[in-house]
Amino acid sequence: MLAIKPNCEYCQKTLPADAQDAMICSYECTFCSDCVKSVLRNVCPNCGGGFSARPIRPKHDRRQGVSLAYHPASTTEVHTKYSLEEITAFSEAIKNIAPKDR
Q1: Can you spell out the DSSP letters for 46-63?
Q2: Residue limits of the RING-type domain (predicted)?
């Protein structure tokens, strides 16, 4: 089950569970769409994968026990350990390789 992390790991923007600009990689690294486009260039600085829009977990359980009320979003903030220089060098090296081929 997705953790639904509460923030962009780069710029620290708050990304609530219903944020439409939250992006994740296959390891659930979470960044805002602005950072994915302008800083990361669709390259996850942690794994090298690409990003997809993070799904929005339902607020209300339309099926019993299946909603944010039963499976709340994480409150633990995550911060990238890489500097802008490291991120730039990493993304420059592989940004032109399609995510499916990385």
Answers
A1: TTS---EEPPPPPSS-SS
A2: 8-47
| Alpha carbon distance 38, 15 (integer Å) | 17
Rounded distance between C-alpha atoms, residue 75 and residue 90, angstroms: 29
Q: Where are the chain's structural domains? A: 22-95
Whether the Cβ atoms of residue 11 and residue 41 lie closer than 8 Å to each other? no
Output phi, psi for 68, to 5 deg.
Answer: -60, -30
> Phi first, then psi: what are they for 98, rounded to 5°?
-60, 140
* Tokens, residue 94: 């592989």
Contact predicate 77/20, CB 8 Å: no
pTM: 0.93
For 53-73, the pLDDT digits (tens) are 999 999 999 999 999 999 999
